[in-house]
Amino acid sequence: MVTSQEVAARRPDPTRPTTPEELLRRAEDLVPVLRGLSDDIERARRLPDAVVEKLRDAGVFRMGVPTELGGPGLDSVQQTEVVETLARGDASAAWCAMIGMDTPLYAQFLPESVAREELSDPDAITAGLILPLGRAERVPGGYRVTGRWGFGSGITHADWVVAGCFVHQDGQPEPGPDGSPRHWRIMLARRDEFEVLDTWHTTGLAGSGSNDYQATDLFVPEEHSFSLGAPRVEGPHSTAEAILRNMPGVPLGVARAALDHVRELAAGRVDRAAATPWADTYRVQMTIAEAEMELGAARHAVYGSLRRQAEILEKGGEIGRDDRVDTVLARVNAFRVARTIVTRLYDLVATTAVYRPSPLDRWLRDLTTMRQHVIAQDQVLQSAGAHLLGGTPSNPFSLGIVA
Questions:
Q1: Pick from 72, 70, 73: which is nearest to 13 by CA?
Q2: Mean of the per-residue pLDDT values of the chain
Q3: For 28-110, where are the E strands, in sequence order?
Q4: d(CA 369, CA 203)
Q5: Cβ atoms of 87 and 60 closer than 8 Å
Q6: Distance between CA 178 and CA 172 in Å, rounded?
């Protein structure tokens, strides 16, 4: 029997985008709006409710919802384009959009009944950390979950929260389905079932509200838990790395915004010592050209690898070692290159960059913070190299490998 909630979820909302093209246009329209609100977002240390509603009205959080469930059904390339566009307006807003739209991706791994419940609102927002920092004690019908998780980006406005755990039974670690020593499972619950802690006092991505959260003896039904190694359905979004693919959109968008800003600045600036327009100054010309070259190469690597991966998955194939690593390295490189570009532009602009209202200082702080994310750290390079050589990755999940 189809419930009224399911009918509502599948009925197109005339006020929300129903196509990728319309959603991207709405994201483009938000760029100047978000840029104008960046100071408010940073001061609030979270996305203000008005900003969340602007993103929701633009259809950002439903971008991965299939068309048959009332969403526009964007693929990973299109999702990355939307995130990249939003990042030109504000990095924290784009970061929260990138995290919050994971709801339909998690639904690929949940039982059908729970997936439908989670998607009863196509604009539902999910936040939380999937890494197994919690403990889930197996009990009849589910688990008793206790733990504390960090980096809950967007948790201040989320509907659902995920929390990674190692499963225990009778007080002892439970082996994984593949015989590994520990069983990693992800719990899903409503946000109000967790306690959110005010811990996000940072200089970069300050507006992302990436607070810690915790639970003590929280009961989570079995059907509200899942493993990224066991999808319920087949398809391009039913792989563990699906939630990682659109991440490079944030650094790419920030770097693009910084380059556009400095190019506009350079058009009317004169080197006072030499009385030479910046447009005719060698060091300025070289800095801009090198930045454009590096950003273009990084961007093409990201989108090229995503398209190759999509072609393989859409044909029902398996991602080989080189194609898997290609996407991973392009992702890490996007974070690295973006920070390098903005650092170089910051140095070029010099003292002017440290004064408000110059946005360069915030962009540099945002990129420095996001570069510390576990998916952008050097251990990912080791994992990629190990995978290519048949060795042992220190962070297999960064490669989309889950037992």
A1: 70
A2: 94
A3: none
A4: 8
A5: no
A6: 17
User: Tell me: the pLDDT tens digits for 297-325?
Assistant: 999 999 999 999 999 999 989 899 999 99
Assign domain 4-118 to a CATH class: mainly alpha
Domain ranges of the chain: 4-118, 126-226, 248-399
Which pLDDT band holds residue 70 (cuts at 50, 70, 90)? confident
Greatest Cα pair distance in the chain: 78
Percentage of the chain lying above the pLDDT 90 cut: 89
Show the 3-state SS of 181-213. CCCEEEEEEEHHHCEEECCCCCCCCHHHCCEEE
- The CATH fold assigned to 126-226 is Butyryl-CoA Dehydrogenase, subunit A; domain 2 (2.40.110)
What's the pTM? 0.95
**Closest C-alpha to 362, from 32, 26, 37:** 37
DSSP string, 287-318: HHHHHHHHHHHHHHHHHHHHHHHHHHHHTT--
pLDDT tens digits along 32-55: 999 999 999 999 999 999 999 999
Distance CA 219, CA 161 (A): 14
- Pairing mode, strands 142-152 and 172-173: unpaired
CB-CB neighbours of 379 under 10 Å: 14
Question: Can you tell me the distance from the alpha carbon of 235 to that of 242, in angstroms, rounded to the nearest whole number?
Answer: 10
Q: Per the CATH hierarchy, to which homologous superfamily does domain 248-399 belong?
A: Butyryl-CoA Dehydrogenase, subunit A, domain 3 (1.20.140.10)
